[in-house]
Amino acid sequence: CEILSSLPLQMSLYFNVYFFPLWWLITVAILYLKYPVLSDYYKFVLVTIMILVSLTELIRLYLGYVGNLLEKVPELAGFWLLTLLPQLPIILFLLFNEGLKIHSLERAVHIIFAAFLSFQVLTAFFTLRRMVNTLATRFRLTEFHCLEEQCPVPG
Question: FRET pair for 101, CA 20 to 30 Å: which of 28, 41, 85, 93?
Fold first, then answer.
């Protein structure tokens, strides 16, 4: 019974749970301050992004906890995909798009959040690979033992 969950991934998820409300508060406060000077296009985009990130982050963190602690491959794969596809590109958009009139505090929290996401993408990938390989090996051994019990060798 080898433990397949990843301690670095779990620590990152733990700190991310406490960092996300801080990131959200700072981002919303700065959005409130710079909202009047933004174009209509960026106003719509930023509000949509905040709603999307908020919903996705809650689901993503839940899947990460369940997938890592309970060693469930589908949940961890969902966590990895939600981190890689919507979250990381959105944070990179918020970090590097100069049309958004980025404040220095906003840039700092986006860099920290992007670092969390990048680290989680890498650790979740290697944890997933280890889990899938171990579970496939267990399955093959179980199948081998079932075949061995059904067909006894003469002698």
Answer: 85
